[in-house]
Amino acid sequence: MKIIIASDSYKGSCSTLEVAIAIEKGIRKIDQKSEIIKIPVADGGEGTVEALVLGTGGRYEEVEVLCPLGRKIKAKYGILKGNTAVIEMAEASGLTRVNADELNPRITTTYGTGQIIKAAMDKGCKKILIGIGGSATNDGGSGMAQALGASLIDRDGKEIGYGGSELSRLYDIDIKNIDQRIYQTEIIVMSDVANPLCGPSGASYIYGPQKGATKVMVKELDENLKHYSNVIKQKLGIDVEKIQGAGAAGGLGAGLIAFCNASLHSGIEKVLDVTDIDQHLIDADIVITGEGKIDNQSVYGKVPVGVAQRAAKYNVPVVAIVGSIGEGASAVYDYGVDAIIAIVPKPMSLNMAMENGAKLIEQTAENVIRLLNLRKPFRNQRKV
């Protein structure tokens, strides 16, 4: 039997590689002969760099950049074969880079993300994959553009500052000093977010509160992004306001389109392409996937459904081993997932489940293989 393991990480508990190792351990308790292929995967958010570096034999690089509040930090990105870089914007500009009591999307910036892009080009990369989940920002990618050399100018001819509140001062955009290498570089944005830049379903209203925005701030930030998009349209001739996905990462999607000629893609689809999962699925017998929590949102670009849809092309059954099962999880059955199994065998706290994630995953994988083995003929070997 050939078994493919392609699971997302369990956020705060196990990385995608740790999940795969735990599943393999559980399988090997019962089955020593089957071929097991571990493929680290992610959906464009946390863990994307690790998944692609491990999945393709790439390497890590580190660069000093500014965090969302302007402090100097070390940020990691990956370089893959073929002069391709993979970046997580959250590594420089994410929520994890800001203390909870410091969250303020009026002042947080994507400048550090622009610095990583520049560092990747310095390494000779001609293609850059950018995962844009988990941002602490709402600046429309303006900081990123400034890091690459674009000038965002107010009515007095002065450079505006960083953060979503500064966009209200924007009057003109000058790109004559932008790093020209950006136009010879293919920028691919990986995201599972389809939100537009502005409006009730836009970046500010949907994601602003989790970044520290009050109701008053949300309205202000949305109006500022609207103004920003109008200036971009007037000065650069690009209408980013209604593009699906432009609102991802506080509007970084819009900024990457406007200043970097970026294209937007499903994160999980692009990761599966880069790791070339199809070559392994052709003759696979079963796929084991998973994520920390599966629910009605999992059909929107999350790993289990992305993997299941790819496996369905080859008629390969899919089992999802998950941390917990949320409301509406049964929706994934219509997208190629054949069974969902939660790892928690008895009542326990979330902290306990997360602390023991690897062991629980291993035990669940063992049970999955035991169930699969039920189809084998009994050989009267059971003890009575």
Automatic annotation (TrEMBL):
The lineage of its organism: Bacteria, Bacillati, Bacillota, Bacilli, Bacillales. One of its GO terms (biological process) is organic acid phosphorylation. This is Glycerate kinase. GO terms for molecular function: glycerate kinase activity. InterPro entries: Glyc_kinase_flavodox-like_fold, Glycerate_kinase, Glycerate_kinase_RE-like, Glycerate_kinase_sf. Keywords: Kinase, Transferase. NCBIfam families: glycerate kinase. It comes from Anaerobacillus isosaccharinicus. The keyword Cell division does not apply. Belongs to the glycerate kinase type-1 family.
